[in-house]
Design a protein that fits this description.
Keywords: Cell membrane, Membrane, Sugar transport, Transmembrane, Transmembrane helix, Transport. By secondary structure, the protein is mainly α. It is built from 20 helices and no strands.
């Protein structure tokens, strides 16, 4: 009996202590944080739009401007040049002017680019417009996840940043359908003269939505504190965490900022920081050189290699989009539960197996059955639960505040450069080395990802951004 009373008393004391420390009284305002994160993640829809729109427009562009093979490759990849430039300048600009203002500028630039891509009567006009749109995408691809990481409570940060990836794959999936729908409005001649214009022009709808909604989100509180404006940051943090935790956050963020001076490029290469930068840059390159965009941009081409007709290959492309979407949702659910490292390991092991099997199927000529399709879908699923979402989560959280903007920019830029390299070299590789060797090269890169993840990636699940900063400082 006395034991029961003792236990009850202990429970009472524990509850009282919790109340005093404010832990039970103050839960983060997830409705507010999620809404704000969704707005920022809309940048990902534009990213997905630009990734997928070309798959529908390419054939018509080719006919309209009488493009040769090299020009066709350029028609696909020219926007990536804009993305590289946009991500490169995103860090310096957003560290200086703030995340929100630069996101607004990027949305505007995207709008100009996408509308201008719909209007030209020359190929030169087309690719200049695409590069302008790409500039906007490059900026948002770095800033949307960064903004979400800076606004999120530690416990849900993975999920909120991964919303960006969900937006990307939703964008890709929707565009596959919109492209198909647009072609239903006219005959072949209309497709060549006008359908592609609508495909690009339609981007103005999500672009405008993103632009308008951005005016309603707050500036990143972490950026404000770094800029010595804690008074402006406090009300935003109070909205997220409640009064007491917000004050503690301000102090923690200030403390970490105090320990680091400057935020110069030189600081990026200081011991500790160097390792964080290496992790971000290598993972960004690996996300691309394991071949995902060979599938995203060229899925119909790959399926045609298996001997299938144009229509069937289009349907299978839509299946790829669907699997990508479903497994990204799964990743969102898992990233804060099982952690970044476990997801990366499982996904990259599975990608290695799938790519090896696809290569084998081509090598042995067993491509008429469903094996290639099944393993491509499995490969996309494995990418979606791992490298797809987790790259953006890791990039947005591993760098210390003073260099975060620049370091995220370098990682994101590496991703775009690697994307450009893969998408330019895939068609010639396919025709010279053949599909088996091409997929084995990607498979080898997936194996490198397994080893790199195992040896170099730290687990950051549940840690606050400030705890992660301290972790690097100890290395
Ligand atoms: C990658 C894109 C890719 C997309 C596919 C993103 O994380 O950065 O290059 O097209 O995933 O879902």
């Amino acid at each position: 009996m006395s034991l029961v009373i003792k236990k009850e008393n202990e429970k009472k004391i524990e509850k009282q202590a919790e109340r005093q420390s404010g832990e039970t009284a103050q839960k983060p305002n997830m409705v507010f944080v999620t809404l704000v994160s969704i707005v920022a993640a809309l940048g990902g829809v534009l990213f997905g739009f630009d990734t997928a729109v070309i798959s529908g427009a390419l054939g018509f562009l080719g006919e309209r401007f009488q493009l040769n093979q090299v020009q066709l490759g350029w028609a696909v990849s020219c926007f990536l040049i804009g993305c590289i430039a946009g991500s490169a300048i995103s860090g310096v600009l957003s560290d200086r002017f703030g995340r929100k203002k630069v996101l607004i500028a990027a949305a505007f630039i995207f709008m100009v680019g996408t509308v201008a891509s719909a209007l030209p009567d020359t190929f030169t006009g087309y690719y200049i417009a695409r590069m302008i749109g790409g500039l906007g995408i490059g900026i948002t691809s770095a800033l949307s996840p960064l903004y979400n990481a800076e606004i999120a409570p530690a416990k849900y940060r993975g999920r909120l940043v991964a919303l960006n990836q969900l937006a990307i794959v939703t964008g890709i999936f929707l565009v596959y359908f919109v492209n198909l729908w647009i072609t239903s409005f006219g005959d072949d001649a209309w497709d060549v003269s006008s359908a592609w214009r609508w495909m690009f022009g339609v981007g103005a709808v999500p672009g405008l939505l993103f632009l308008v909604l951005l005016f309603f989100v707050p500036e990143s509180p972490r950026w404000l504190i770094k800029k010595g404006r804690p008074a402006e940051a406090l009300p935003i943090l109070i909205k997220i965490h409640g009064e007491q935790l917000a004050r503690e956050e301000v102090l923690a963020i200030k403390e970490v900022s105090k320990q680091e001076s400057g935020g110069s490029f030189r600081q990026l290469f200081m011991p500790g920081m160097r390792t964080a930068l290496m992790v971000g840059v290598v993972l960004a390159a690996l996300q691309q050189v394991t071949g995902i965009n060979a599938v995203m941009y060229y899925a119909p081409v790959i399926f045609k290699e298996t001997g299938m007709g144009a229509n069937a290959s289009l349907i299978q492309t839509i299946m790829v989009g669907f699997v990508n979407l479903v497994f990204t949702l799964l990743s969102l659910w898992l990233v804060d539960k099982v952690g970044r490292k476990v997801l990366l390991l499982i996904g990259s092991i599975s990608m290695t197996v799938c790519l090896t099997v696809i290569g084998l199927a081509f090598q042995t000529g067993q491509t008429s059955g469903p094996i290639v399709l099944i393993f491509i879908l499995l490969y996309v699923a494995s990418f979606a639960i791992s490298l797809g979402a987790v790259l953006w989560v890791i990039l947005s959280e591993i760098f210390p505040a003073p260099i975060r903007g620049k370091a995220v920019a370098i990682g994101t830029m590496t991703h775009w450069v690697a994307d450009y390299a893969v998408s330019q070299s895939f068609p010639p590789l396919l025709s010279t080395a053949g599909p088996a060797v091409t997929f084995w090269i990607f498979g080898f890169m997936a194996l490198v990802t397994v080893i790199f993840t195992w040896r170099a990636i730290p687990e950051t699940k549940g840690k606050s951004l400030e705890e992660i900063e301290t972790m690097w400082a100890k290395k």
